[in-house]
Amino acid sequence: LSALSRVTRAPADKILGLTEKFNVDRHPNKINLTVGIYKDNRGRVTTFPSVASAQSLLETSLDLNNDLSYLPITGSQDYQNNVLNFLYRESSDGSELLENNRITFVQTLSGTGALAVASKLLATFVSKTVWIPNPSWANHSNVFQWNGFNQIKYYTYYEDGKLSIDKWLKELKESCSSRDPDWPPSIVLHACCHNPTGVDPTLEQWQQILPVIHDLGITPIIDMAYQGMESGNLIQDAYLLRMCLEYEWPNGLFVCQSFAKNMGLYGERVGSLSVVVPPNPLDLKSTIDSQLKKIVRGIYSSPPGYGSRVANLVLSNPKLKQQWFVDVKNMSDRLWNVRIQMHERLNWPNLVDFKTQHGMFYYTGLNPYQVQILQERYGIYLTEDGRMSLSGVNDGNIDYLCDSLRQVVQ
Ligand code: PMP
């Protein structure tokens, strides 16, 4: 018998598996509302004007470093400078940290890659315990598990249609107060547009949450996959980063950032991991740099080039950057418009409050059985937890969608 027969069958990916099913569904009115890819009002995945301009500039210019050779292990220096500038000079007030050389950087394979590289470092050297919100993006626990964490803990984030901060903080306090301080756990915090609920703590609530996390010695991992999609303004949406920078984090502040959604560069895998390291010992940053390089080298050696060149141009060319801000605002406006239209059509008093939610998803409150009926009878695909990607809703299908939803909750 082959030793490979010890391989056990893994369950299909909770989100991507549904698209496979959708693709072979023959329902004439089928709608895919599972995956978080932005589509316009005609149901097309379009390239943002800023990104399209950057692409054509790259195509026509010979001096924009267009060659296909390897990038350095932690990515291109230009990209690093521009992303750090965007995150720590424009989105937040971290200039001093940059000047004091306190931020390590890796150009990563989008947000997932950033989470994976951060996990490897943390699980190898800091501790193997991580707290994840319940509910959260389904891939979080998978990423942390595969990259060395052996204790995945869940804090109650949302219950009965609303945030449950008191319970969340109580759980952290009960579990972490008596822990060995040499092995501090990490915690995943969604920067904005929490996936799947679409509900985030307010600034006042974060002011209540962050001191608790800080005082318990927990290491924050900010997962910033939707910057710009909450308010429509990229800078405004970095509020959690700004607030976290008001503290010194003795075990570092980890920032996993993605251009997948806010530049529409999904498949190009463009993102970053930056770690704000404590000021002492003096060579700590370069030591961490050395391990991050080793981690990357051991998994994929170096990141892909093309998408990061596009992002780099958008970030560094003032005209393209201005356009990018407009593009993000347009996307966010359309999603908000869809949310309001559905709210008005459905007039659902008994389900989750629409207006406290924002971003790409509508967390409907439908149960798995209702989700299944929607799929089987109406060809409408949501994730099992009742999360609906609003980007798949448009003028052509909103009536059918709302009629079907009404039938299912009757
Ligand atoms: N974090 C969250 C919460 C997400 O929803 C996603 C995308 N679905 C990611 C991280 C990572 O996405 P990507 O790797 O495409 O940047």
From TrEMBL:
Gene3D superfamilies: Aspartate Aminotransferase, domain 1, Type I PLP-dependent aspartate aminotransferase-like (Major domain). Transmembrane segments: none annotated. One of its GO terms (cellular component) is mitochondrion. Residues 29-405 form the Aminotransferase class I/classII large domain. It comes from the Eukaryota. Homodimer. In eukaryotes there are cytoplasmic, mitochondrial and chloroplastic isozymes. This is Aspartate aminotransferase.
